[in-house]
Protein: Amino acid ABC transporter substrate-binding protein
Organism: Marivita lacus
Amino acid sequence: MKTVVTSVCLLAASSSMALAAGHGNCAAGLTLDENVLTIATGNPAYYPWVLNDAPEAGEGFEAAVAYAIASELGFEADAVTWVRTSFDEAIQPGAKNFDFNIQQYSITPEREQMVDFSLPYYTSAMAVLTTQGVVDAGATASLDSLKGLIWGADANTTALPMLTEIVAPEKDPLLYGDNTDVTAAMQAGQIDAALFDLPTALYLSAVVVEGGVILGQFPAERSDNPDTFGLLFEEGNPLRDCVNAAITALTESGKLAEIEATWLQDATGVPVIE
Protein backbone atom coordinates (compact mmCIF):
# COMPACT_ATOMS: atom_id res chain seq x y z
CA MET A 1 0.00 0.00 0.00
CA LYS A 2 2.83 2.36 0.91
CA THR A 3 4.48 1.68 -2.47
CA VAL A 4 1.25 2.46 -4.30
CA VAL A 5 0.77 5.73 -2.39
CA THR A 6 4.38 6.72 -3.04
CA SER A 7 3.99 6.00 -6.76
CA VAL A 8 0.81 8.04 -6.94
CA CYS A 9 2.52 10.95 -5.17
CA LEU A 10 5.49 10.77 -7.52
CA LEU A 11 3.16 10.71 -10.52
CA ALA A 12 1.26 13.73 -9.21
CA ALA A 13 4.50 15.59 -8.57
CA SER A 14 5.75 14.78 -12.06
CA SER A 15 2.49 16.03 -13.58
CA SER A 16 2.72 19.27 -11.60
CA MET A 17 6.28 19.81 -12.75
CA ALA A 18 5.24 19.23 -16.35
CA LEU A 19 2.44 21.76 -16.04
CA ALA A 20 4.75 24.27 -14.38
CA ALA A 21 7.17 23.96 -17.26
CA GLY A 22 4.71 25.86 -19.48
CA HIS A 23 5.57 25.32 -23.12
CA GLY A 24 9.11 24.12 -22.38
CA ASN A 25 8.33 20.48 -23.17
CA CYS A 26 6.82 21.54 -26.47
CA ALA A 27 10.17 22.77 -27.79
CA ALA A 28 12.15 19.70 -26.72
CA GLY A 29 14.06 18.27 -29.67
CA LEU A 30 12.86 20.98 -32.06
CA THR A 31 15.75 23.46 -31.84
CA LEU A 32 18.90 23.45 -33.97
CA ASP A 33 21.04 22.58 -30.96
CA GLU A 34 19.74 20.51 -28.08
CA ASN A 35 18.76 22.57 -25.03
CA VAL A 36 19.79 25.81 -26.81
CA LEU A 37 17.53 28.39 -28.48
CA THR A 38 19.28 30.16 -31.36
CA ILE A 39 17.77 33.55 -32.18
CA ALA A 40 18.78 35.83 -35.07
CA THR A 41 18.56 39.59 -35.34
CA GLY A 42 19.92 42.32 -37.61
CA ASN A 43 23.54 43.28 -38.16
CA PRO A 44 23.55 45.80 -36.65
CA ALA A 45 20.39 45.89 -34.55
CA TYR A 46 19.02 49.33 -33.72
CA TYR A 47 17.19 51.18 -30.96
CA PRO A 48 14.41 50.83 -29.91
CA TRP A 49 14.40 47.18 -31.00
CA VAL A 50 17.77 46.39 -29.42
CA LEU A 51 19.82 48.70 -27.21
CA ASN A 52 23.50 49.25 -27.98
CA ASP A 53 23.46 46.50 -30.63
CA ALA A 54 23.63 43.96 -27.79
CA PRO A 55 20.58 41.66 -27.91
CA GLU A 56 22.11 39.36 -25.30
CA ALA A 57 21.47 42.10 -22.71
CA GLY A 58 17.72 41.70 -23.21
CA GLU A 59 17.24 45.45 -23.53
CA GLY A 60 15.10 46.98 -26.27
CA PHE A 61 11.65 45.90 -27.41
CA GLU A 62 12.57 42.92 -29.60
CA ALA A 63 15.37 41.70 -27.33
CA ALA A 64 12.95 41.71 -24.40
CA VAL A 65 10.27 39.94 -26.43
CA ALA A 66 12.78 37.29 -27.50
CA TYR A 67 13.78 36.50 -23.93
CA ALA A 68 10.16 36.46 -22.77
CA ILE A 69 9.35 33.89 -25.46
CA ALA A 70 12.45 31.89 -24.58
CA SER A 71 11.37 31.81 -20.93
CA GLU A 72 7.88 30.75 -21.89
CA LEU A 73 9.42 27.91 -23.91
CA GLY A 74 11.44 26.82 -20.89
CA PHE A 75 14.86 28.22 -21.84
CA GLU A 76 16.91 30.10 -19.27
CA ALA A 77 18.67 33.24 -20.49
CA ASP A 78 22.03 31.47 -20.59
CA ALA A 79 20.54 28.86 -22.94
CA VAL A 80 19.84 31.52 -25.57
CA THR A 81 22.45 32.22 -28.24
CA TRP A 82 22.35 35.00 -30.84
CA VAL A 83 23.40 35.08 -34.49
CA ARG A 84 23.24 37.93 -37.00
CA THR A 85 21.71 38.05 -40.48
CA SER A 86 20.83 40.73 -43.00
CA PHE A 87 17.12 41.39 -43.48
CA ASP A 88 17.02 40.11 -47.07
CA GLU A 89 19.27 37.11 -46.45
CA ALA A 90 17.00 35.60 -43.81
CA ILE A 91 13.82 35.98 -45.82
CA GLN A 92 15.06 33.83 -48.69
CA PRO A 93 13.82 30.21 -48.82
CA GLY A 94 16.07 27.42 -47.61
CA ALA A 95 17.87 26.17 -44.52
CA LYS A 96 18.46 28.62 -41.66
CA ASN A 97 21.18 28.91 -39.04
CA PHE A 98 18.66 30.04 -36.40
CA ASP A 99 15.53 28.76 -34.71
CA PHE A 100 13.74 32.05 -35.34
CA ASN A 101 14.64 35.54 -36.50
CA ILE A 102 13.26 38.69 -34.86
CA GLN A 103 13.95 41.71 -37.05
CA GLN A 104 10.76 43.70 -37.70
CA TYR A 105 9.50 41.32 -40.35
CA SER A 106 6.08 42.37 -41.61
CA ILE A 107 3.89 39.34 -42.24
CA THR A 108 2.84 39.31 -45.91
CA PRO A 109 1.37 36.62 -48.20
CA GLU A 110 4.33 37.00 -50.56
CA ARG A 111 6.87 36.33 -47.83
CA GLU A 112 4.83 33.43 -46.48
CA GLN A 113 5.46 31.62 -49.76
CA MET A 114 9.17 31.44 -48.83
CA VAL A 115 9.27 31.30 -45.02
CA ASP A 116 6.95 30.80 -42.07
CA PHE A 117 5.88 33.42 -39.53
CA SER A 118 4.65 33.26 -35.97
CA LEU A 119 1.56 35.01 -34.71
CA PRO A 120 2.15 38.78 -34.52
CA TYR A 121 4.09 40.06 -31.54
CA TYR A 122 3.58 43.72 -32.53
CA THR A 123 1.06 45.69 -34.56
CA SER A 124 2.65 48.93 -35.67
CA ALA A 125 1.30 52.39 -36.15
CA MET A 126 2.80 54.12 -39.19
CA ALA A 127 4.45 57.51 -38.76
CA VAL A 128 5.31 60.35 -41.13
CA LEU A 129 9.00 61.22 -41.08
CA THR A 130 9.94 64.61 -42.51
CA THR A 131 12.36 67.45 -41.78
CA GLN A 132 12.09 70.71 -39.90
CA GLY A 133 12.42 72.57 -43.20
CA VAL A 134 9.25 70.94 -44.54
CA VAL A 135 7.40 71.79 -41.32
CA ASP A 136 8.64 75.39 -41.50
CA ALA A 137 7.30 75.53 -45.05
CA GLY A 138 3.81 74.82 -43.73
CA ALA A 139 3.34 71.03 -43.59
CA THR A 140 0.91 69.97 -40.86
CA ALA A 141 -0.47 66.73 -39.45
CA SER A 142 -3.54 66.76 -41.68
CA LEU A 143 -4.35 64.59 -44.68
CA ASP A 144 -4.91 67.60 -46.93
CA SER A 145 -1.43 68.88 -46.12
CA LEU A 146 0.17 65.44 -46.56
CA LYS A 147 -1.34 64.89 -50.00
CA GLY A 148 0.64 67.81 -51.42
CA LEU A 149 4.05 66.59 -50.23
CA ILE A 150 6.63 64.79 -52.35
CA TRP A 151 6.86 61.27 -50.94
CA GLY A 152 9.52 58.60 -51.10
CA ALA A 153 9.25 54.89 -50.29
CA ASP A 154 11.23 51.66 -50.28
CA ALA A 155 9.66 49.74 -53.15
CA ASN A 156 10.19 46.45 -51.29
CA THR A 157 8.33 47.20 -48.05
CA THR A 158 4.71 47.46 -46.96
CA ALA A 159 5.10 51.24 -46.57
CA LEU A 160 4.33 51.77 -50.28
CA PRO A 161 0.83 50.23 -50.38
CA MET A 162 0.01 51.87 -47.05
CA LEU A 163 1.10 55.25 -48.43
CA THR A 164 -1.16 54.79 -51.44
CA GLU A 165 -4.03 53.54 -49.29
CA ILE A 166 -3.95 56.09 -46.49
CA VAL A 167 -2.40 59.28 -47.87
CA ALA A 168 -3.13 58.99 -51.62
CA PRO A 169 -0.59 61.72 -52.52
CA GLU A 170 -1.21 64.01 -55.48
CA LYS A 171 2.10 62.98 -57.09
CA ASP A 172 3.38 59.42 -57.45
CA PRO A 173 5.94 58.62 -54.74
CA LEU A 174 9.58 58.26 -55.72
CA LEU A 175 10.73 54.67 -55.23
CA TYR A 176 14.06 53.51 -53.80
CA GLY A 177 15.89 50.24 -53.26
CA ASP A 178 15.97 50.40 -49.47
CA ASN A 179 15.23 52.67 -46.53
CA THR A 180 18.80 53.94 -46.42
CA ASP A 181 18.25 55.43 -49.88
CA VAL A 182 14.92 56.88 -48.74
CA THR A 183 16.48 58.74 -45.82
CA ALA A 184 19.39 59.89 -47.99
CA ALA A 185 16.89 61.31 -50.50
CA MET A 186 15.13 63.15 -47.68
CA GLN A 187 18.37 64.68 -46.45
CA ALA A 188 19.21 65.70 -50.03
CA GLY A 189 15.86 67.47 -50.37
CA GLN A 190 14.62 65.14 -53.12
CA ILE A 191 11.57 64.10 -51.10
CA ASP A 192 9.56 65.76 -48.33
CA ALA A 193 8.33 62.76 -46.36
CA ALA A 194 8.22 59.00 -45.96
CA LEU A 195 6.26 56.46 -43.95
CA PHE A 196 7.99 54.25 -41.39
CA ASP A 197 6.75 52.15 -38.53
CA LEU A 198 6.63 54.39 -35.48
CA PRO A 199 9.61 53.04 -33.51
CA THR A 200 11.85 53.19 -36.58
CA ALA A 201 10.69 56.73 -37.33
CA LEU A 202 11.60 57.71 -33.77
CA TYR A 203 15.11 56.38 -34.25
CA LEU A 204 15.60 57.94 -37.69
CA SER A 205 14.40 61.36 -36.56
CA ALA A 206 16.73 61.32 -33.57
CA VAL A 207 19.86 59.75 -35.04
CA VAL A 208 19.90 59.51 -38.85
CA VAL A 209 18.04 62.40 -40.49
CA GLU A 210 19.46 65.81 -39.65
CA GLY A 211 16.60 68.02 -38.55
CA GLY A 212 14.31 65.00 -38.60
CA VAL A 213 10.75 65.49 -37.37
CA ILE A 214 7.89 63.04 -36.87
CA LEU A 215 4.90 64.94 -38.21
CA GLY A 216 2.34 62.49 -36.84
CA GLN A 217 1.18 58.90 -36.73
CA PHE A 218 -1.64 56.85 -38.19
CA PRO A 219 -2.97 54.37 -35.61
CA ALA A 220 -2.73 50.74 -36.68
CA GLU A 221 -6.52 50.48 -36.95
CA ARG A 222 -6.57 53.31 -39.51
CA SER A 223 -5.40 50.86 -42.14
CA ASP A 224 -7.40 47.88 -43.36
CA ASN A 225 -4.16 45.89 -43.23
CA PRO A 226 -2.04 47.20 -40.36
CA ASP A 227 1.62 46.24 -40.36
CA THR A 228 2.12 43.23 -38.08
CA PHE A 229 5.52 41.85 -37.12
CA GLY A 230 6.12 38.12 -36.76
CA LEU A 231 9.07 35.90 -35.92
CA LEU A 232 10.56 34.35 -39.05
CA PHE A 233 11.13 30.59 -39.34
CA GLU A 234 12.44 28.23 -41.95
CA GLU A 235 9.40 26.97 -43.84
CA GLY A 236 7.86 23.96 -42.13
CA ASN A 237 9.72 24.42 -38.83
CA PRO A 238 7.59 22.63 -36.18
CA LEU A 239 8.92 24.96 -33.47
CA ARG A 240 6.55 27.63 -34.77
CA ASP A 241 3.54 26.00 -33.09
CA CYS A 242 5.31 26.08 -29.72
CA VAL A 243 6.28 29.73 -30.22
CA ASN A 244 2.70 30.61 -31.20
CA ALA A 245 1.49 29.08 -27.94
CA ALA A 246 4.10 31.14 -26.07
CA ILE A 247 3.05 34.37 -27.80
CA THR A 248 -0.60 33.64 -27.02
CA ALA A 249 0.25 33.10 -23.35
CA LEU A 250 2.31 36.32 -23.20
CA THR A 251 -0.52 38.25 -24.87
CA GLU A 252 -3.20 36.90 -22.55
CA SER A 253 -1.10 37.56 -19.44
CA GLY A 254 -0.46 41.16 -20.49
CA LYS A 255 3.30 40.61 -20.58
CA LEU A 256 3.65 41.61 -24.26
CA ALA A 257 1.76 44.85 -23.63
CA GLU A 258 4.01 45.49 -20.61
CA ILE A 259 7.15 45.04 -22.72
CA GLU A 260 5.76 47.36 -25.40
CA ALA A 261 4.96 50.02 -22.79
CA THR A 262 8.46 49.74 -21.32
CA TRP A 263 10.46 49.99 -24.54
CA LEU A 264 8.18 51.94 -26.90
CA GLN A 265 6.65 54.41 -24.44
CA ASP A 266 8.40 57.37 -26.07
CA ALA A 267 6.01 56.94 -28.99
CA THR A 268 3.04 58.22 -26.99
CA GLY A 269 3.96 61.87 -27.60
CA VAL A 270 3.55 61.69 -31.40
CA PRO A 271 0.33 63.41 -32.58
CA VAL A 272 -2.38 61.39 -34.32
CA ILE A 273 -3.19 62.35 -37.91
CA GLU A 274 -6.93 62.70 -38.38
Q: What stands out?
A: The CA atoms of residues 165 and 223 lie 8 Å apart. The two ends are 74 Å apart (CA to CA).
